[in-house]
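Input chain follows. Return structure tokens only.
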Amino acid sequence: MRLLRGSIAAVVVLGVVALVVFDRNSGHSLATPIDPHGLARVYHAPKTVRATPQQKAAAVSTLSQFVQSAIVRRDLASSWPLATAHMKEGTSRSDWLQGNLPVVPYPAAAFRSAGYTLKYQYKGILGYDVLVLPKETPAAQKAGQQVYACELHDVGGRWLVDYCYPRKTL
């Protein structure tokens, strides 16, 4: 019995020694490399450009359709052409139609309406906060209000949703 215990202990010790000897450092640094001789990269915020009332109306129209189809998950096929290539990246049309799209859903049974607030505007880009409100039923009130941050891009004269994600629940 002592021989068996001693053999097991010896195998464990040899295994640990082998790991230490042959697998010295498997860690990798996640630090950003700094080039002391390179030029500093300075971030310059894009110039704010006011959108016209027609552009804002077109963007809100697209966003309204997108909320109804993608966020509330009613008629997913109609939201596919409202998304940019960036938003569709990594998702096929068939996945999208099955509900596997990069937008967190809001329960359709709880949805009453949505409000849109323009947060920023750059040339060809509009950023909105979308407030999704629940119905006036106890079950819908559990879903609560949800704010989505959405960005639309002017692609060939059409406003398309580039991203849309939940920012906070109220």
